[in-house]
Design brief:
alpha/beta; binds acetoacetyl-coenzyme A; 9 helices; Rossmann fold; seven-stranded parallel β-sheet; single chain
């Protein structure tokens, strides 16, 4: 099988790291894209840790809220590894607050990091995928994009928006071997979820039929499956993976 080149935004994050590993285990050359604020850790400690675990990942630094910065990172990856065949948009942040307290800055930061980033990263690689007749785009959304969440009007808006984006580009890619899918994790044991106050998190876990938080490996397994060459008939779908917390 052709060795595919994969770019993973937020690749040094908790879920991103597992996605990078699963794609590498599947035979891909992998680049993680990280924000300048996370550059030191990603290029230092994280890369080293990955090497010790047997993985040699490229790290590209970009502010994905900026179209040109995203383009520069994609160019760097293409020059080093080859054209991007698989793009996983996993970068995301939270700035939780009830709407009556949410500031325009909290709104804007989340829209920029979670939704602008998806357009900015995808727009630089999609035409190449169409031309080469193969591509896989996997966008990481959230359970809260379909069910909403007290304190997450900004985050939920981006996560719902992501699936509209997925369905549209899935139609644009379908005839050319390019698939696009959304993966919507529920509550996963990551620093983002562990930052939710303990009492609130305990109430959320109590609503998960499986009875526990998910783990990043469980998300990565699904992402790698969708990114596989043999998954060409799965496109435009929103794949829920939430321990049964929200069935729809
Ligand atoms: N439903 C209904 N009412 C709620 C509520 C809820 N879920 N949560 C709080 N309230 C009520 C309180 O009872 C209180 O009511 P009174 O004023 O009548 O006493 C009022 O709302 C408090 O509102 P505040 O705005 O003052 O609340 P706060 O500032 O203390 O906290 C919050 C708000 C920061 C959003 C906090 O509720 C919180 O952290 N919630 C969790 C949000 C969450 O799930 N985030 C997910 C992060 S992980 C992630 O995003 C990954 C993923 O994809 C799943």
């Amino acid at each position: 099988m052709t060795q595919r080149v994969a770019a993973v935004t937020g690749g040094a994050g908790a879920i991103g790291t597992e996605i990078c590993k699963h794609l590498a285990d599947q035979g891909c050359k992998v680049a993680a894209i990280e924000h300048p604020a996370a550059a030191e850790r990603a290029e230092g400690e994280w890369k080293e840790e990955m090497k010790e675990a047997g993985y040699d990942f490229m790290v590209a630094i970009a502010d994905l809220g900026d179209h040109d910065s995203a383009g520069a990172a994609m160019k760097q990856i293409e020059e080093a590894l080859g054209p991007v065949d698989i793009l996983v948009n996993a970068a995301g942040i939270t700035r939780d607050a009830a709407i009556r307290k949410m500031t325009p800055q909290q709104w804007r930061e989340v829209i920029s990091a979670n939704l602008d980033s998806v357009f900015n990263a995808t727009s630089h690689v999609f035409a190449g995928m169409l031309e080469r007749g193969f591509g896989r785009v996997v966008n990481i959304s959230s359970i809260n994009g379909t069910k909403g969440q007290f304190g997450q009007s900004n985050y939920a808006a981006t996560k719902a928006g992501i699936h509209g984006f997925t369905m549209s580009i899935a139609q644009e890619g379908a005839r050319k071997g390019v698939t696009a899918n959304t993966v919507s994790p529920g509550y996963i044991a990551t620093p983002m979820v562990m930052a939710v106050p303990d009492d609130i998190r305990a109430k959320i876990v109590a609503q998960i039929p499986v009875g526990r938080l998910g783990n990043p490996q469980e998300i990565a397994r699904l992402v790698a499956f969708l990114a596989h060459d043999d998954s060409g008939f799965i496109t435009g779908a929103n794949h829920a993976i939430n321990g049964g917390q929200h069935m729809h």
